[in-house]
């Protein structure tokens, strides 16, 4: 996992000092980062920032939480997540805690340009969230 550049309005890799992408990482690396942060091995401040996220359209959609008011436990769940999108990508990483049990997840879907499987992708991502919810009891 690596941060390669700063956030830019326009990313033109032909210009000196501009990376072709903001960052690189794998789902495995993101889950490891979430786990280590949750366990206190890494600073917890980023989890406080992530708790303010409002996009619950993907995996987190299965938890039935209020997108604008879930920084505190609700329905017995505490969610911290971050989503990312691009024209051909949907990603959702997070930590879900219930009854003292926590699951870290990273779900990433990608497809070829020109295809539009978003409805199916979002449905499958919510199904994964449902499986996480069921696992937590």
From TrEMBL:
InterPro entries named in the record: Beta-lactam/transpept-like
Region (Disordered): 1-21
Basic and acidic residues bias locations: 1-13
Protein name: Serine hydrolase
Source species: Barrientosiimonas endolithica
Lineage, highest ranks first: Bacteria, Bacillati, Actinomycetota, Actinomycetes, Micrococcales
């Amino acid at each position: 996992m690596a941060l390669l550049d700063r956030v830019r309005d326009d990313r033109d890799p032909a210009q000196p000092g501009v990376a072709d992408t903001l960052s690189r990482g794998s789902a495995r690396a993101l889950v490891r980062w979430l786990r280590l942060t949750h366990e206190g091995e890494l600073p917890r401040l980023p989890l406080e920032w992530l708790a303010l996220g409002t996009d619950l359209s993907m995996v987190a959609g299965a938890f039935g939480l209020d997108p604008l008011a879930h920084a505190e436990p609700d329905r017995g769940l505490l969610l911290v997540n971050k989503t990312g999108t691009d024209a051909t990508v949907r990603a959702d990483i997070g930590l879900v805690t219930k009854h003292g049990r926590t699951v870290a997840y990273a779900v990433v879907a990608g497809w070829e340009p020109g295809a539009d499987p978003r409805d199916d992708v979002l449905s499958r991502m919510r199904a994964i969230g449902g499986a996480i919810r069921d696992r937590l009891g």
